[in-house]
TrEMBL record, chains A, B:
It comes from the Bacteria. SUPFAM superfamilies: Winged helix' DNA-binding domain. Pfam families: MarR_2. Residues 22-80 form the HTH marR-type domain. This is HTH-type transcriptional regulator. The lineage of its organism: Bacteria, Pseudomonadati, Bacteroidota, Chitinophagia, Chitinophagales. The keyword ATP-binding does not apply. The keyword Transcription applies. Keywords: DNA-binding, Transcription, Transcription regulation.
Length: 168, 168
DNA sequence: CTGAACTTTCAAAATATATTGAAACTTATT
DNA sequence: AATAAGTTTCAATATATTTTGAAAGTTCAG
């Protein structure tokens, strides 16, 4: 397979995967492009490679910087801004985990906490069904958050090797 | 907080969380409704509670059955179909994990495998950058898949208690 | 077999999300 | 200070996704 063909294939597939997980397709494609680039790319490079407008390229590259997945790179003697992605995949994964936890899971947990006590007789079947479900989601979420916090702080080798021991 | 208010709040929040993760809002709301229901609900119940059309209710309830998160319940002497959600949250979580892995992650991994060898000089910087990124994503994905497979098969208590040991 | 009860389908309409591109803004150079 | 180079914004437009609802399909009791 030719390099350019492989690059395009990767960019497309990464974009599709992203949309399936609620991430803007173009943002993911810009990310993919930067992940496989040998050197930092300018906004014009990105526009060209993905056939997208300047506005779109600009907005997504900035969003990726918000997510801390991409950094601005200054090249001496060039007024253009260049961009480079974090390439350590463990760091990429834990970064995404951190961001999504913060943006999406934490607010849900906050809501769950507010739902813990409903008015009325706790022996009432409807109230019991509701409360039990909420409580078990809360318990699960607490464990999941703990797990994610460990991963976010962990060093990759330590994490996987510990995890493998778990299986023995 | 009143029960009905709390129910609505939960359904809304669950729906929002779902859209953020690429899941149809209504499907998630139907799921939420069934998770907190004290007894199986009919299509008419669902339409009423969520103010949605029959077509929408029907399609989402069937999609939830595809995902194996909801079962059809037959009530003797009633021609209507009723629906009930799996309430064990560990089972819900591992079921979702299994489904999303199968539908979304496995296809991506298949693509990654096809991208492993590109034509050309392996010392070329562009080719090297591409290959290295793909390889490290593949390695990460392989570990992640292994982890998910363990979780999918695992019993909840065993998993969390083993995981806690890992931290010591 | 017939008709009532219920479920499913799917084209059209509604809604939500993403993209464009030109104007406004910012920054660096002469 | 004027200009050129580059970046950002955002209203208008385009695209993608979801929802509706009525017609077609199915099932079952009498």
């Amino acid at each position: 397979m030719k390099l350019n063909e492989a690059k395009q294939q990767f960019i497309q597939s990464w974009g599709i995967l992203a949309t399936q997980w609620g991430i803007n397709r173009t943002m993911a494609q810009v990310h993919a492009l930067l992940l496989i680039a040998g050197e930092p790319l300018s906004t014009d490079n990105i526009m060209e490679e993905l056939s997208i407008s300047r506005g779109n390229a600009n907005m997504n590259v900035r969003e990726l910087m918000n997510w801390q997945l991409v950094d601005k790179v200054i090249i001496q003697g060039d007024r253009k801004e260049y961009f480079a992605a974090e390439k350590d995949i463990w760091k990429v994964a834990t970064c995404i985990m951190y961001q999504r936890k913060k943006r999406e899971l934490d607010p849900m947990i906050k809501v769950l906490n507010q739902l813990s006590d409903v008015e009325g007789d706790k022996r009432n079947a409807e109230i019991k069904a509701f409360t039990e479900t909420i409580e078990s989601i809360k318990k699960f979420a607490a464990q999941a958050e703990k797990t994610m916090d460990v991963m976010i702080k962990a060093e990759e080798n330590w994490f996987w090797s510990s995890f493998i021991k778990l299986l023995k």
